[in-house]
Amino acid sequence: MPIYSYRCEECGFAQDVLQKLSDPLLTECPSCGKSAFKKQLSAPAIAGEGSGAPAGLPPCAFGGSCMGGPCG
Questions:
Q1: Residue 20's domain spans which residues?
Q2: CATH number, domain at 6?
């Protein structure tokens, strides 16, 4: 199940919610009760090579280890 981030446009309350794709969007803020709770746009998580570096770049480019091999 995906995790969606919501934020209230009235009071600023933010919450991550585990929801099914078929679940209706939440609209009522659990903090202030107003109908200003909106789903936020977020970047998708991308699975890579495990180093944290984007595919095609050496791990050392992002603070990782090149394991004694050449970098670059």
A1: 1-40
A2: 2.20.28.10
